[in-house]
Design goal:
alpha/beta; Rossmann fold; 8-stranded mixed sheet; globular
Amino acid sequence: MALSFDPEIEVALKAAADAMGEIPPPPPRGDALMLRAGLDGLMAQMLAAAVVAPGVTKTTYHTVAADGTQLNLHWFASSNSRPGSAVCYIHGGGMICGSVDLYNAVISDYVTASGVPMLAVSYRLAPEHPHPTPVEDAYAGLAWLFDHAAELGVDPSRIAVMGDSAGGGIAAGVALLARDRGLQLARQILIYPMLDDRNQEPEDALVPFANWTYDNNFTGWSALLGSAFGSDDVPAAAAPSRATDLRGVAPLYMEVGELDIFRLEDIDYARNIAAAGVSIELHVHPGAPHGFERMAPESDVAKRATADRLRVLASL
């Protein structure tokens, strides 16, 4: 059977296209700053930017990155937050765009629905800040959470790392660093993560459905990796699919849509973690493209995915 959109998602996409009118041409392949400008505007529309859910407080803390730069950390908690567990959340944006502010609604909705507080890291973006800056910034946020667990009412044995898209890829890199540096994570929760810089050859069956395109993927990875892009010199912390030893990483929860260009790299990563003797839960959602739950939040597939995420968060 040929690939096709989930019918509910297809209706939502048509309505969005009709509302947007004429779509501007894509930026030139490799132009990260132009792509950033377009994607930040799109994310602002899709993510209800700068809106924190009622009942959730957002408190800003600070830590120091590996290179001495001060980073902002944002603690989202609600009146119904249960003491004990916590999540370090890494926002998406193709390695080149996005921000915690753009994710205010996404993160605070998770906190409200799950009762689990989250620390979101304002990591620096490529191309101005290539690897290792994004993953090291994110790790610095996670380390701060462990160091300040007692004052936040957090049990260090119940801390997870979570992210979507590029944030999911960075979260996977953070999970590898945590293993290697002695921080024991309870879970890594990866939502359609961007894991493999070598995923550059278009899969013909997916091209008609790709909203995060192969050209975008080239632009994001080349911005992050510079001259190392595609070579044998890319470390696993930058592109976790490069990891050759996954023993001892945190248990994995992962989702990806079958119409997402990340689907095979994500499936392979989950399989490799399973082969290393680590517990995994993997969902591949039929008819779903990248970012499907934000395009069609009322669709059955989005509701199923959200329920699964909340179940995993509640289990921490």
